[in-house]
Amino acid sequence: MKNKKWIVILSIVLVVLLAGGSVFGYSQWQSAKKEERLKDAAKAWVSAIEKQSFDKIPSLVTSDSLKAAGYTKETVVEKYDAIYGGIGVSNMKIDYEISEDHTLSYTATFDTVLGTISSIPYKTKLVEDGDTYKIDWTAELIFPGMLSDDKIRYTVDEAQRGSIIDRNGKPLAFNTTTYQAGVVPQNLGEGQARTSKIANIAKQLGISAEFIEEQLSQSWVQPDYFVPLKTLAYGTEATVIDGVSYQEVQTRAYPLADAAAQLTGYVGEVTAEDIEKDPTLQSGDIIGRSGLELTFNDELRGENGGEIYIETANGEKRATIQQVEKKDGQDIQVTVDAQVQQVAFDSLENAAGSTVVMEPKSGNLLALVSKPSFDPNLFVVGITQDQYDVYNNDENKPFISRFSTRYAPGSTFKPITASIGLEAGVTTVDKTREISGLQWQKDDSWGNYKISRVTETDVVNLETALVKSDNIYFAQEVLEMGEDTFREGLNKLTFGENYDLPLTMEPAQISNEKSFGSEILLADTAYGQGQLLMSPIQMAANYSVFANDGVLTYPKLLVDAESKTKEVFAKETVDTIKPMLMKVVTSSEGTANSLKGVGNLAAKTGTAELKGSQGERGVENSLIFAFDANDSSYLTVSIVENHREVEKTATELIKPVIQFLEKVQ
């Protein structure tokens, strides 16, 4: 009987324990589910704000809190869109935590039109709403301290774009004012008088009457408002036109205009695509579009300043959210000399080509000219379609930067071949070659291919070959030294190298493949043809060895850049070649004899013929490189494309440049 009693007691205890355990377990389960719902609500809110998925907000906040704040599901979305879009919020990152009393605390870091705002603190309650939790919303969740009827305003203090200046501080690109032509509607009259006046305005400004009518029909236009029609390019006079008024506006100016267009480039107003790529940009911002303006856009543009603040319904400032001091853009100083640039541009006359002027000791590029060209000032104010078509349809392609475009260097390259031959011991001063006729081929294995020369000389030595520019002599020399020796010498130069210049330029090349693959190509390369390609800048750099006792100076375009050099040839080699290059000018038989008396020059001319097959007469590019033989104060390379068409050679056209350099050195 006693045992039965204990069994009953134990059974009761077990039942009580099991019941208690079930209650405890259920409570724990409920608590875990509650914790999960809190986390889900917080995570959903943070995700919506970070991703700016504002359409999700109405489902994440309590209806009562929206109503209390005076908002509807639609207007709260509109508010977020207007504010965040208006100040350019992007790259939102949020760190958050949930406290025991269901308070959601988070800090937000994001970018605006004025830069980055870090760790803005937010706090709200997570309120149970049915089987979920939702945000207890107030306007302070847009920005702390904000009330429901407040607005967000911002002002921008625009940074001044830096200037591009030459070595002497003269502007190549700078900020200035120009005139904007427009009309005041009430001054146009009515009926036929108005129609006639608009037609005349359109003709004088180079725009259409339809465009003028479109501008006048804009919703904001009032009878006494000034309606802009056209901004005049820098340097354009504001002429008197019946019905037209003018106001001054800021613009970017390029005083050398087409003389330095490919170098400076130009700026333009941002597009929707630009803003999509960089949300910190705003409509109306100006950025670099080409040339140095594009390369150094970040440095030139600077950083806008301004203030983002909360404004009360009464138009008063409640609190500052972000305030940034503007940082004006940096000036970029280049080694170019504006005067030399202009003279070099003018000297090319109506030819298509390029002239580069360099200081061979420092590497400073004094002029980078490409012709034909375009006026960058027109692009700043908005080039008309007719003006653009003139440039775009020009077969000589004025938008190309010819100073960084690769060409066959022609016979200007022969001193390089001669120097390699001298250092290899194949070429000597006393060695002669007997050559008959104006054409030559090694043997019948060359088929119909023959190498031509201009002047027939039976006995040719190194000096004669340079002075008279004998292709056959250099072809025979390079065939004797062989490809391995020749390439070894060429590889001491800068073939295949990228220069540290703020310009787009493919490296100079010796040949399309790592080996010539034929004796004909090897021979052609000796006198600057074949597949040899060099830009005028690369020619100037590699030819600097003759002005620097065998040391190559790399070109530089920024004043504060360091000069860089490397030894290529022995001084004795250059001492042998240099007097011969001087005779190219002083000798009556020299190909640059027309420059005799202009200065104490060393030079080498060249002609690179571009033709489809042997026997036909192709397009000829005329080239010259020349340098000051006294103290190497300057070196210039010039190329004239299809010189027969302009009936002048590069040697003839470079004369004014050398005369100017001689005068100012």
Automatic annotation (TrEMBL):
GO MF term set = penicillin binding; peptidoglycan L,D-transpeptidase activity; serine-type D-Ala-D-Ala carboxypeptidase activity
* NTF2-like N-terminal transpeptidase domain location: 39-149
- Main location, first listed in the record: membrane
* EC numbers: 3.4.16.4
One of the protein's GO biological processes: peptidoglycan biosynthetic process
Q: What class of enzyme is it?
A: hydrolase
> Which protein is depicted?
serine-type D-Ala-D-Ala carboxypeptidase
Question: What is the species of this protein?
Answer: Lysinibacillus halotolerans
